[in-house]
Amino acid sequence: MATLVLIVAGGLVTSTGSGLAVPDWPNTYGWFMFSFPLSKMVGGIFYEHGHRLIASTVGLLTIILAAWLWKSDPRRWVRRLGFIGLGAVIAQGLLGGLTVILLLPAPVSIAHAGLAQLFFCITVSLALFTSRGWIEGYSQDTTTTTENTENTEKRKRQKSPVGSVRSVVNRQTDNGVLRKLASATTIIIYAQILLGATMRHTGAGLAIPDFPLAFGRLVPPLDRLAASPVAIHFSHRVGAVVVSLLVMALARRIWKYHRQRPELLRLAQGMLVLLLAQVTLGGLTVLSGKAVALNTAHVVTGAMLLGTSLVIALRARRASFIESARPIDVEAGASAREDAGAAPILQT
Amino acid sequence: MRILTGLVLVGLLVGVIGCGGGSQAPSTSSAPAAPAGMKVDESKAGNVRGKVVLDGQAPKADAIKMNADPVCLKEAKSDNQTEFFVVGDGGALQNVFVYVKDGLGNYVFDTPTQPVVIDQKGCRYHPHVFGIRVGQPLEILNSDPTLHNIHAVPKTNAEFNTGQPIQGMKTTHTFTTPEVMVPFKCDVHGWMNANLGVMTHPYFAVSDKGGAFELKTLPAGTYTIEAWHEKLGPQTQSVTIGPNETKEISFTFKMTT
Known about the structure:
By secondary structure, chain A is mainly alpha-helical.
């Protein structure tokens, strides 16, 4: 949640054009960042310095998270992911400073925006991996419903019979098509966010002034499309169509074959709502001439869409995480967890 | 001697043939180029003066909301409106940068050491449009009891962004390349903007409240004069002046909706 707030703050910095309101870094007008007087947080400084303070808080929280995971989580890959998150947030801070010192060159600013989303994905993943549902299993993970038409058809096509309950469970919860579709959707949403960041940081946000048409047509005239801002802007619109198709396909698949899994169904429903909101916000951003609130909401909703798609992709792959894990501490720690009704923690 | 005379004649002939393309030269620079390093003889110089007018109804100036900074609200005592179109009687258009764009040839000019000052006062830039010479110091002053950053966004000169958190702070900057125009902005106070023309010569002016401007001590010749307005863009016209002559010209910017 703190990372999402940080993305809101970062979005506000760009939307209000406050990226260089504080010319120095890591200091703020010569003050040590944390001793800068609150009374001087005016105009663009409010957004830029506020962004730095929130980023510092997120950095501190990430240090605590990484240390906590290192100390208490038995899964090596989760502990490593905690440190990768810490590395990402440090790199993100340095990129933020660099883009200020270098006067907002587009490549650095785009990298800053892109890494922000990757760091958000890491924090979302860590929240998921440490959640009760992920550790203990979702309600449908242990059922072998015969209503799962897709898997039933798959089983029929298989030469060898299903060997065990576990393999049935894995195919059901770790369905290949779902995994691939969810992963592809997540990657394409991320690519679309990078395109959006490119548009944002090259000043191409209003290169096509109308919506939903482009210069009154479905496709801009070629002579206009030759201009890079128009091409970047139009690519983002094409990307929106691709993302929409993928999100709808993913939601349809979950509705059709996995509706008995609430941990996927709820997210699929949420993702459709987010998609509708995101397309609407994108259009309104153009029509309003990049109104600050709409522009920022578009950035944040994009991040939420990415996070939702990522969680679906990871939950669709949960069985493969579990399958590659080995039970640990069965005798000591796990017995206590089982007493409390929890499944044993697994470690790679 | 005969050989020497012959060589000189051949040289002159080649020169004449070489200059035969004179009619192909840019019409904006038909005055004979001054010898390299030549200074203007002010006793024979003329002037170009004139007026800039706006044809049409200027858009109403927007009120500037300074709520983002209480200090600005307090300091900005006068009417706070945008300065994009400052129009006086008879359509007189203020804040138009007028300068000799072409025709000066190889004249050289001393670089002034006296700084040009831009002041941040009442959370506005003073002046709003102004000129400076290449190499001449620009003194940036913060007269406000609040923080400003002055952010120049040139295309050919080096971009800079300087913080001035303390009232009375001064910073000096010089520009290395001629450029029309260099925009200035304050990222703290988004409404603050100014424009600077960087010149290699002293023939520039900014139209005043009456739309008037004057380019003084111009040597005789034919010049391209450009008038630049921050919203309406540039306009050019050619003018020829003789020794000690003063020519009147005018620029009319049409307001398109």
